[in-house]
Amino acid sequence: MKTVVWQSLSEQQRESLLQRPAITAGENVTAIVKDIITDVRQRGDEALLELAEKFDKVRPESITVRQEEIQAASDRLSEDMKQALQQAYANIAKFHKAQKAKPLQVETQPGVICEQVTRPINAVGLYIPGGSAPLPSTVLMLGVPAQIAGCRRVVLCSPPPIADEILYVAQLCGITDVYNIGGAQAVAAMAYGTESVSRVDKIFGPGNAFVTEAKRQVSNDFNGAAIDMPAGPSEVMVIADSSADPDFIAADLLSQAEHGPDSQVVLVTPEPSIADRVADAIASQLSSLSRADIARQALGSSLMIIADSITQCVSISNHYGPEHLIVQTRNPRDLVPLLDNAGSIFLGRWSPESVGDYASGTNHVLPTYGYTKTYSSLGLADFTKRMTVQELSADGLLELAPTVETMATAEGLDAHRRAVSIRVEKIKQSRASTLKEA
Amino acid sequence: MKTVVWQSLSEQQRESLLQRPAITAGENVTAIVKDIITDVRQRGDEALLELAEKFDKVRPESITVRQEEIQAASDRLSEDMKQALQQAYANIAKFHKAQKAKPLQVETQPGVICEQVTRPINAVGLYIPGGSAPLPSTVLMLGVPAQIAGCRRVVLCSPPPIADEILYVAQLCGITDVYNIGGAQAVAAMAYGTESVSRVDKIFGPGNAFVTEAKRQVSNDFNGAAIDMPAGPSEVMVIADSSADPDFIAADLLSQAEHGPDSQVVLVTPEPSIADRVADAIASQLSSLSRADIARQALGSSLMIIADSITQCVSISNHYGPEHLIVQTRNPRDLVPLLDNAGSIFLGRWSPESVGDYASGTNHVLPTYGYTKTYSSLGLADFTKRMTVQELSADGLLELAPTVETMATAEGLDAHRRAVSIRVEKIKQSRASTLKEA
């Protein structure tokens, strides 16, 4: 890890230090993904099976995973594993249930009632990557909010063979539509539908460069599907003062570094001695990791920044906008009001990132690559949409009419004005005639 | 307007009837916008001035609108206009203030505290189109939530000369950074910054095909800016039963039709006689409109659908997913729980769309083109982002540790497991030694 002293840097050096490495899908990936999407749209299931053979080196017996297979997976799983997954499920469900939006009703002026109501997105698709190890935690992070939001149809795609842990969590989350498909073709199938896979409105989940590019392409198509958020490499920043335990910090930095060679790992501290001791602890912990090679690569481009003060650490963090921010200082809670632009914040020495990755209750799908400035930690809101409702009484309309008529006139929209004035006339006429009769 | 009987259509005919016309920016627009963005990034203000001359046929004296000009605009405005704008401001502010998110804190299991906090997006850019008439209502719909959210910097761009109404509303909303720039170049300036225009994190607002394409391009760039939502032509659907007033429906349909030749206007009713009477009322109201030509073009591609029942009307609406939905039935409120996929819903005979367009309090920036299935009516949430925070006690961590360790092992992530187990060991050691000392 490179160590730099913040005060010694020019404004421009600071900017470039915190700059993320450029991500480009590459012309190559863009074109391949475009072809895959076209192929899936044209040939449906047949294309899915052929592409699975080509890219995943497996032609699944069937695209749809049968209920019996899901049940069998659950039967094979150890009790320990089931208990762990159930505990994580319970915590994530509790935190996401608390995010339910309450209906909102406001009488903005007498007789003018404005409301905001929330509805689940009807059909959502969850993409779960394959690879050497299964990712049941990602199924939890996507499946639990989809279930709580009340999405009517939840589709899960993952490259075959799908691990027992994934099928078990899918069952916990009430997901019945599970498909043996991975890669860009899975995204295409969910966005446009095939004979086996019914199309969804919004697609969630992480993936490799092809999956990310496919999500980008379908979300740019008016007839495609919406997506959760743009994706970038995973990141952690740790703010530490002299009270922090260097072993803990080293373990946290390494747990980010093992994700992938492109993981971003940054320590910011006003204590040069902490930086030194963390470096030693990393060296000693690194050797025993199974993914030491990956972690070593990630650490190669990682940073230790020596700041002037904790206040400066906070301002560096707000500028960088990390996906994960771990605060190991004497009074971490005091810093929360000052912190901005972070996906998820972990306070104090007993809150390692990995509890949030798995089981504390917060979502591990977070904006990366500086998108923390505009995007949110994934939550129930991402599986719903807000509609507004309004209802005016005759008196409410009479009272508001001059305002609307004046503004519509200024904007040159006659018919907008008339939609109001034609009603006002009728109200006045009807009241006049009632008065006459009486 | 074309009238069709829903029951007489095949499934496929129904699909294609509700299909929106294809939108394509055109290779041409894509390329022009790409060049404009490159030019603004390279040459900054100088490019902005030249592009204004080229496209808007005005070279503004200065890119920045001075405070005195804003004050002068306000002085020129009539009292009636100011009062109307103030009333609209008050209602919109009241409804959007009510949307403030409350901080959320949940103890998911003993000693494990998870929170959700909300922060304003730091810098936002508002685009206000020019054209024959000013659009102060759009400034309200974007400026009010930006102000209430507490965005630190709010930038407004509009092609010169900027109307007094727009400058006055900008002042009401506390916007001080107003720029004489329009078109794709304004979007580029806000996304990347120039000497005069400081860059923003997220860009909001409607515009022509060039503005829309520029927003799409900058939102696809990792170094660009986020945007509010995808844009399509404006739409209204009216559900009416025999209790509805045909004159009101005609006025509402026309107020949508006058927006532009590509506006979508649909009436759904179980009463053929209502459709006939609405057609007559449209014919009689149309002639006196200043924008009759535009409205006539829009009506050319518009629809009256005769349904079997109000239930079928609701299901057609949910399938179509209109931006605006007006419900003129005997008991409109009874339908709300059944309605889905609408941007904003107007209940009953005294709630024309134009009250929501201007002054009732709801936002008029709404998803169109079927995006109501996944996107929300613009609200305070779009000017903020949610971060999660968590804090575990030593006991909380001890209790949760086995779950995290089991899951990390299953996912093959050693360092994730160790970030927990290294802490658990220390807690146990420290408690053992305390016990020994005692």
TrEMBL record, chains A, B:
<dbReference type="InterPro" id="IPR022695">
    <property type="entry name" value="Histidinol_DH_monofunct"/>
</dbReference>
<dbReference type="InterPro" id="IPR016161">
    <property type="entry name" value="Ald_DH/histidinol_DH"/>
</dbReference>
<comment type="similarity">
    <text>Belongs to the histidinol dehydrogenase family.</text>
</comment>
<dbReference type="InterPro" id="IPR001692">
    <property type="entry name" value="Histidinol_DH_CS"/>
</dbReference>
<feature type="binding site">
    <location>
        <position position="416"/>
    </location>
    <ligand>
        <name>Zn(2+)</name>
    </ligand>
</feature>
<feature type="binding site">
    <location>
        <position position="208"/>
    </location>
    <ligand>
        <name>NAD(+)</name>
    </ligand>
</feature>
<feature type="active site" description="Proton acceptor">
    <location>
        <position position="324"/>
    </location>
</feature>
<feature type="binding site">
    <location>
        <position position="324"/>
    </location>
    <ligand>
        <name>substrate</name>
    </ligand>
</feature>
<feature type="binding site">
    <location>
        <position position="127"/>
    </location>
    <ligand>
        <name>NAD(+)</name>
    </ligand>
</feature>
<dbReference type="GO" id="GO:0051287">
    <property type="term" value="F:NAD binding"/>
</dbReference>
<dbReference type="GO" id="GO:0008270">
    <property type="term" value="F:zinc ion binding"/>
</dbReference>
<dbReference type="GO" id="GO:0000105">
    <property type="term" value="P:L-histidine biosynthetic process"/>
</dbReference>
<dbReference type="GO" id="GO:0005829">
    <property type="term" value="C:cytosol"/>
</dbReference>
<feature type="binding site">
    <location>
        <position position="411"/>
    </location>
    <ligand>
        <name>substrate</name>
    </ligand>
</feature>
<keyword id="KW-0520">NAD</keyword>
<feature type="binding site">
    <location>
        <position position="416"/>
    </location>
    <ligand>
        <name>substrate</name>
    </ligand>
</feature>
<feature type="binding site">
    <location>
        <position position="357"/>
    </location>
    <ligand>
        <name>substrate</name>
    </ligand>
</feature>
<comment type="pathway">
    <text>Amino-acid biosynthesis; L-histidine biosynthesis; L-histidine from 5-phospho-alpha-D-ribose 1-diphosphate: step 9/9.</text>
</comment>
<keyword id="KW-0479">Metal-binding</keyword>
<dbReference type="Pfam" id="PF00815">
    <property type="entry name" value="Histidinol_dh"/>
</dbReference>
<comment type="function">
    <text>Catalyzes the sequential NAD-dependent oxidations of L-histidinol to L-histidinaldehyde and then to L-histidine.</text>
</comment>
<feature type="binding site">
    <location>
        <position position="357"/>
    </location>
    <ligand>
        <name>Zn(2+)</name>
    </ligand>
</feature>
<feature type="active site" description="Proton acceptor">
    <location>
        <position position="323"/>
    </location>
</feature>
<keyword id="KW-0368">Histidine biosynthesis</keyword>
<protein>
    <recommendedName>
        <fullName>Histidinol dehydrogenase</fullName>
        <ecNumber>1.1.1.23</ecNumber>
    </recommendedName>
</protein>
<feature type="binding site">
    <location>
        <position position="185"/>
    </location>
    <ligand>
        <name>NAD(+)</name>
    </ligand>
</feature>
<keyword id="KW-0560">Oxidoreductase</keyword>
<feature type="binding site">
    <location>
        <position position="256"/>
    </location>
    <ligand>
        <name>substrate</name>
    </ligand>
</feature>
<dbReference type="GO" id="GO:0004399">
    <property type="term" value="F:histidinol dehydrogenase activity"/>
</dbReference>
<feature type="binding site">
    <location>
        <position position="259"/>
    </location>
    <ligand>
        <name>substrate</name>
    </ligand>
</feature>
<dbReference type="InterPro" id="IPR012131">
    <property type="entry name" value="Hstdl_DH"/>
</dbReference>
<feature type="binding site">
    <location>
        <position position="259"/>
    </location>
    <ligand>
        <name>Zn(2+)</name>
    </ligand>
</feature>
<feature type="binding site">
    <location>
        <position position="234"/>
    </location>
    <ligand>
        <name>substrate</name>
    </ligand>
</feature>
<feature type="binding site">
    <location>
        <position position="256"/>
    </location>
    <ligand>
        <name>Zn(2+)</name>
    </ligand>
</feature>
<keyword id="KW-0028">Amino-acid biosynthesis</keyword>
<keyword id="KW-0862">Zinc</keyword>
